[in-house]
Automatic annotation (TrEMBL):
It comes from the Bacteria. This is Glutathione reductase. It catalyses: 2 glutathione + NADP(+) = glutathione disulfide + NADPH + H(+). One of its GO terms (molecular function) is glutathione-disulfide reductase (NADPH) activity.
Amino acid sequence: MDFDFDLFVIGGGSGGVRAARVAAGETGAKVGLAEESRMGGTCVIRGCVPKKLMVFASEYAEGMHEAVDYGWDVKIGGFDWTKFRTRLEGELDRLEGVYNRLLEGSGVTVFPQRATVADAHTVRLADGTTKTAKHILIATGGWPSIPEVENGELGISSNEVFHLEELPKRLLVVGGGYIACEMACIFNGLGTEVTQFYRGAQILRGFDGEARGHIAEHMQRHGIDIHCGTNILSMEKVDGGIEVRSTTGDTFTFEEVLFAIGRTPNSAGLGLEEVGVEIGRRGEVVVDQYSQTSVPSIYAIGDVTNRVQLTPVAIREGMAFVDTVFKGNPTAPDHDLIPSAVFTQPEYGTVGLSEEDAREKGPIEVYSTAFRPMHKSFIGRDDRVLMKLIVCADTRRVLGVHIVSDHAGEMIQLAGVAVKMGATKEDFDRTVAVHPTMSEELVTLKTPVRTA
Ligand SMILES: Cc1cc2nc3c(=O)[nH]c(=O)nc-3n(C[C@H](O)[C@H](O)[C@H](O)COP(=O)(O)OP(=O)(O)OC[C@H]3O[C@@H](n4cnc5c(N)ncnc54)[C@H](O)[C@@H]3O)c2cc1C
């Protein structure tokens, strides 16, 4: 049977763009891609990239205060949100252009419109036309969840946060996951008064307990008003902002309320169930280890599958899909030991197991140190760095590394290589320290602080 395309990708985000480019560019496949919004998807347009640029912007406040203590004559003025936002928008336009050109250069035919699945080999475009394809790849990502609270529509999500007209004076962040915590730190750094509600007992659920406590304590000390065990009950528009009633019975007024309570896979309304694609309880497209759905010609990668919601993972899944389907080399994306970073202030870099999860698996040794790094202690700052290794007591393998410090994201990328290679505690010990650095502590941790 003749198809219009060998592959039709729905969604031009991290996973979809990579799969389309590699399939077309490296295997000569005829590829079509539909994107209903802006090319680049969440990461480029409303996720990692604008967020990281805002992290950079927000860190200058602390940096300038530190510079003064180091002897610089700095006059600290205000932050010009409009100037920053204009530059940010320019940068996102530039990156979107790069993505479009990369697709064009690989020979991918782009349809800048919404697409849905009509049958196992047919895609319907918003303009009413249909395209047939031997394989269809669903790469539609996810969307921020909004809680069902009274007048919840008064709040915004991470989609809107980068486009605010003005920097809010008082902001409520609802949620305790990594995006919520990052946003709380960003706005705190930019000079906004930040309150954070999280319904659980401690922010950053799922990460290492000691690291979570360390970060929460640091965030609070730097002015973020964290309310754990607290949720939003109702919201009402009032003069000067939004009045929020909390489940703990308190009333607050904020200029903006940002919901960052999680993301839902973008699978609704795509026609997937109608053609027999299995959808899971949380709306995720159910796939096997090769990203194949219950309909053999339809595959899915990235956030829509709700495996690990990270850009490099979506990219890996896209490349594994191309290896499997177009290069004759069945490849299951490897979801084990994925290093990641939380861009709170201070940053958190992590790879492998938390202490809590490692305990469940067998006897462990925990090596951990919290100390004042040189550049902070010199100016009398009390901010501490946390360096922690979780070691299997039987095999001596390092099962987890946790770093809370400036630049922890950069450090964990490299520690991740060692952990992925199966490094033991003794391998870490045999490695000569780089001095004077913070990360040298990772290779000089002598005695376990706990065994379990
Ligand atoms: C605020 C924020 C910060 C983040 N920070 C990080 C980070 O620091 N590091 C990290 O690794 N990850 C981060 N992420 C997560 C990361 O952005 C996602 O994991 C990644 O973008 C997923 O890629 P994807 O290809 O699955 O989907 P997406 O990038 O979401 O792309 C999906 C695309 O599909 C399009 N689409 C949807 N439905 C249709 C349709 N029917 N027809 C046509 N097009 C459609 C959408 O418009 C979108 O462009 C962050 C996310 C957010 C929200």
